[in-house]
Amino acid sequence: MKLVIFGLTLSSSWGNGHATLWRGLCAALARRGHRVIFFERDVPYYASTRDMTELPGGELILYGDWDNNVHRAQEHLRDCDAAMVTSYCPDGIAASRLVLDNCPGLRIFYDLDTPITLSRLARGEQVAYVGENGYRGFDLVLSYTGGKSLEDLTSVLGAARVETLYGSVDPAVHRLAPACEQYRAFLSYMGTYSPDRDAALNALFIEPAKQFEDRRFLIGGSLYNGGFPWRPNIFYVGHLHPALHAEFYCSSRITLNVTREPMAQTGYCPSGRLFEAAACGTPVLSDYWEGLEEFYAPGSEILIGRESGDAVEALQRSDEELARIGRSARERTLDCHTSDHRARRLEEILSHASHCTEVTTACGE
Residue 279 and which of 77, 170, 236, 361 are 20 to 30 A apart at CA? Predict the structure, then answer.
């Protein structure tokens, strides 16, 4: 299969969750004999933090101006088996028109931010990657989240066929690793700063830091500033290259997963960070959202925090119990949530969608 993708970024993991996911998924697809062509607009903030320049088994195409890129994109679309536009693609509307008009195979939209997309539309806000026709015209719409989001993609955005393609982890990158003193933490948290995580982060991270003043708490990620409620025992390491994530997680006694509010409200929204930490064998404390138990078993594979008391209780558990939870989460992740699992899932989805499209065309509908 030749798959052409117009996405946010593959070349930089700074400030976004798309790049790491795509790197693992593209590698898994390449191992299965497929070829991915990924188009990414070359923007300054990703150019200055670029940590990948080539796509093994495929091709990463960085372009500066959409109009000057159209001819090259058309050439790749001409013989592709499927083409995909993703949420937050800087030229999402133009790319969607190009795919709908030129792709001879399956035409796909992959919304990796479905609850964010839907919540912004519900508030009457303009979404830069959604055109006036919504997702109508695409043969298939993939969603990073499940639950009620799938119904809304049809009723609000006109999707004809919707399937879930959840996040995943590349176990070659996120793996067991020796602890590192620089990242040692009683409780860690890795994530790009977002205001809609404030309430949960305050309850599950800041408040426990107040109660364990002699313990070291650690944050990794981008876009934090002086307005954050820093404390003397909260340390900050900034953005970390994915190659350093394993050391970060494996140096943590527990790590925290906090979901963006619109996603938590919708449910069925496992973040890439959740899978990454679990693949490293690190016990995870997570905020709760509907459907979480379908990915990890509460109590035995993951710890749930609804309020600060839950976080304090988790931090008071014995090292032996926490290690057991971390091992169980790692086993579940390797059994169910790797890039290879999602690559096979994508193959199944595309095969079924292709068959349905052929039948519909044959019937003249």
Answer: 236
